Amino acid sequence: MSVNALEAALWQLYLHPGDADSFRSDAASYAADYRVTDKERELLVSVDVMGLIDHGVNSLLVLMAFQTIYGPERLHDYFDIVNAPAA
Q: Boundaries of each Extradiol ring-cleavage dioxygenase LigAB LigA subunit domain copy (predicted)?
């Protein structure tokens, strides 16, 4: 498990707009720069909010990265996902 690597990838997205642009252009290529497992890479590339949080990634960091990737106009989607009843 490489939660630290996932958090580093999300932090970079938040901190550097150019990295967020790279992620939006080719998420798989962006994720390849981080030492994560195949499962973790899939969580990152798909921006699987609950998957990332359930995996141990800090939920505030997931929120910050989500907003950076999708913009503030989609922030309600993050809250819908997080507040949805468990399946």
A: 10-62
